[in-house]
Amino acid sequence: MREIVVGAAQMGPNQKSDTREAVVARMLSLLDQARDRGCTLLVYPELALTTFFPRWYMEDQAEVDTWFESEMPNAATAPLFQRARDYGIAISFGYAEKTPEGQYFNTQILTDREANIIGKYRKVHLPGHSEYDTERAFQHLEKRYFEPGDLGFPVWRTQDALVGMAVCNDRRWPETYRVMGLQGVELIVLGYNTPSVNSQMSKEGLAERLYHSELSMTSGAYQNATWVVGVAKCGDEDGHPLMAGSMIVDPNGFVVARAETEGDELITHACDMDLSVFGKETIFDFDRHRRIEHYGLITSQTGVVRPE
Amino acid sequence: MREIVVGAAQMGPNQKSDTREAVVARMLSLLDQARDRGCTLLVYPELALTTFFPRWYMEDQAEVDTWFESEMPNAATAPLFQRARDYGIAISFGYAEKTPEGQYFNTQILTDREANIIGKYRKVHLPGHSEYDTERAFQHLEKRYFEPGDLGFPVWRTQDALVGMAVCNDRRWPETYRVMGLQGVELIVLGYNTPSVNSQMSKEGLAERLYHSELSMTSGAYQNATWVVGVAKCGDEDGHPLMAGSMIVDPNGFVVARAETEGDELITHACDMDLSVFGKETIFDFDRHRRIEHYGLITSQTGVVRPE
């Protein structure tokens, strides 16, 4: 048995007016709970430190920059890293990253149990649009404020396991899981900020959207025989509802822990990495069963090309 | 609206001793029911004409050959083609194919409404093994009797829709759906023969196996915004149970029709191909959102390569 006690630290809403310090105080409280429950890895959501600002249309880059971090850790998050180190709990969380070269990414990091950042992932699948869209009920401007991630889908060896990351919309794309699956991933941790309403189809209800989120994560887990931990920031951010539904999924595709609220809430599970072995050695033994000679379109072609 | 009334003709067991003619008589009965319910496309299972013979270990190639068809249609299936033509119902079914060159495939065909074969698919993802395995509760010798399909995952334009096929274990592989999704597929029809028991883990129950089958088809449907029709041959074949669970899944990943028995049973649904449009133009608009520069491993590497 190779056990990691994983905590999914679902977070309630961050309002525009909330300071980083106020948000980190809530993250510290979740960290305290995680220690009490024996976690060695705690996962927070996408854009954990701020509101989901891509819903706001901004033209002034100086204003946009206020939502980004140019260093990590920084003054606001140093207490989080310090306490995580004190507790020996590895952490993973998402934030908006501005690089020294002036690039902007939707980023998630992973630390070891000494609070050293050992992995960085930059969101590859940016949903939404880049210009103001008058057809939508509200804006989703991720393609305006971020560049697509440039680091691929790496997998890191830590806590005697192979761990990968993804962010929000990445979880709907089977390529995300498969690229990590091909590196032997055993645990994928991902955060999300997903509106409760489809901005382009209001009749699609919350239940349908929660189903799609679960379907994406459970299938990705099953088809790659890996643990998947999905963590929401949720609730009402300045009048815009985000869905909850944080969950821990086992390598058979079954949900073993699920958040019940739309607020700050810790769910945990003792995840045995060895549970991924059976699937990887039998039905999803890629080496015996995959037929890459027939997969060419997946990497040769971005969009749809219909037959004559 | 572009509607195809699709029938999923689940079939009960075929015993080793059943003749092709006896099986085709049951298929004709299902075809009659499909006409009564207004179907224009009727889908039968994998290896519809015979028992699931890969559970039997054979060394005599002449004996193996008795399970294969060297022509299609042939004497036994001619009545099925004739009546399908009379009714104007397109059909799709699976059979073991021996080619004039002496190749062996696990094949599924698709006809138009005049019973002309317009599409042929050969199963790409062969599960199981090629030599007698003393560790298994029973044998699953698909890799012994079949070669992997050599036709890829084509998509055909018929009945004003884009239709693709897959067979059984193919449905568990996201690559199957994605390669067809990249060709704009709107309806995937697939048959299966899936043992109710995991030959390598007897404690895995039927409910878990049905869940995995559903999870694979619903996620494939959702993530490619396509209809998926999965059709079982099921029930007890000479003491070996096969699971049922035939279903029709809409392009949002919801099951809209589901078989209730483990025998011959027709389920139908009027499938509007235009329901696939919204998903293909928004969240799964591949051209805007896919990032093939990060998918390389999917086609460059068959098996797992773990990081140092």
Automatic annotation (TrEMBL), chains A, B:
One of its GO terms (molecular function) is hydrolase activity. Residues 4-275 form the CN hydrolase domain. It comes from the Bacteria. Pfam families: CN_hydrolase. The keyword Metal-binding does not apply. InterPro entries: Aliph_Amidase/BUP, C-N_Hydrolase, C-N_Hydrolase_sf. Coiled coil: none annotated. The keyword Plastid does not apply. SUPFAM superfamilies: Carbon-nitrogen hydrolase. Keywords: Hydrolase. This is N-carbamoyl-D-amino-acid hydrolase.
